Amino acid sequence: MDGKSINGFNYIASFRRYLAADGSHVHHIVPLSTIGAEYKLDPIKDLIPLCPNCHAVVRRGSEVMSIETLKEHLAEAKRRSALATRPHSL
Predict the structure, then answer these.
(1) Hey, which end of the chain has fewer CB within 10 Å, N or C?
(2) Domain ranges across the chain
(3) pLDDT for residue 77
(4) For the chain, how far is it from start to end, CA to CA, in angstroms?
(5) How far is Cα 62 from Cα 59, in angstroms, rounded to an integer?
(6) Tens digit of pLDDT per residue, the chain (90 long)?
(7) Residue partners of 65: CB distance under 8 A and separation at least 6
(8) Cα 22 to Cα 44: distance, rounded to the nearest angstrom
(9) Residue 65 burial (CB count, 10 A)
């Protein structure tokens, strides 16, 4: 992993001195509680690295947020941030 999470933030570069590893959390796209013991985990298909903040967001609430929904929220937040920092014309 390059240290970048789904939101593009590089935790390794920013917090290297505080981290023992790369700082990413590994998120199970299909929650473990919904699959049986006979399920064969495919790390490429079933897991995704997330920064700790994004992982907390997708796990918040009674249902796990999809990665696509998280990406939509991040894109909207980035769009709003860009609008807020744009100079206003008079």
Answers:
(1) C
(2) 11-85
(3) 87
(4) 46
(5) 8
(6) 455 566 676 656 665 555 545 567 888 988 888 888 888 988 888 888 888 888 899 998 888 999 999 999 989 988 888 887 777 665
(7) 57, 58, 59
(8) 18
(9) 15
